[in-house]
Amino acid sequence: MNVRRPHISAVALAAVTALGIGTLSACSSDGAAAGNTDKFDVVASFYPMAYLAEQIGGEHVHVTSLTQPGQEPHDLEISAKQTAQLEESDAALYLKGLQPTVDEAIGQSPVKTKIDAATLTSLEEHGTEAGGHEDEHGEDEHSEDEHGHEHTHEGGEDPHIWLDPVKYAEVAEGVGKAFEKADPDHAADYRKNTAALVGTLTDLDKKFETGLADRKTDVFITTHAAFGYLAERYGLTEEAISGLDPESEPSGARVKELQQMAKADGVTTVFYETLVSDRTAKTLAGDAGLETDVLDPLEGITDASRGDDYVQVMEANLKALQTALGAK
Description:
Elements lengths: L9 H10 L11 H4 L5 E5 L2 H11 L3 E5 L14 H8 L3 E4 L5 H9 L4 E4 L17 H4 L27 H18 L4 H25 L7 E4 L5 H6 L3 E4 L11 H14 L3 E4 L6 H10 L2 E4 L15 H16 L3
Parallel strand pairs: 1-2, 1-3, 3-4, 5-6, 5-7, 7-8
Helix pairs in contact: 3-7, 3-8, 7-8, 8-12
């Protein structure tokens, strides 16, 4: 099982080199330098997929992420060297619909085991209409921003399943079974590790359910609609400034609507994320007299992240939501 350092787009290369960032792998940090390994070689599309592979694979896998820390995953362009690396891997773990260049590369790749996380749980349509809650506040006037097709699954379905611990656990179970089938010599360990991860995610779900149970408002505002599944899981209403595409600009009508909504629903905070500009969030918050804070969509872990891994950052998200929603 060949191992190489991942290659990235020219845009991110200089920054990654300066930071000294190497292959993402909790299990074989020197494996990249060694050149070859006997481990099960998994190429993951971006952080939430890499985290699953590392947690489930444990010591038996070498995980490489195509998306580097700090790189916006939707902007990823696969290089020829990454394509070659993918072709020589044992498995590819990705979320179809989130990164079109990854979908294309994996679709054309001869890699034997292709695991699409989108097939391991049910997807729903969320998006610019506040995560499916448009009926509560009227027709969303910024539907023109739904041109962000690069950020939506086929049929307009929301790909952000990892932000719901329950759905993420369902995906974990599917990934575990795929690993067992592809690498049967270590099937028992994959089952054990999958069960442990599902247990951790179940505990996280309980923390969210308990921590958000007694709150003053259900409504929170985000820069883009990444939290539709999380909102639905815990009975919240996500109102997004820009919809599913984090780079799209809201209409003036949408901004006015959100300002009125914030006043009516007791909203205190406009959330933004670390990998995308906070300009829009701070402008809206300033005009409406609101606070701003980070709600991390966990598309990558960087020095700016409020935690070192998925669980820690999700717990930080819970604290931010508790403060914004007035939860006790």
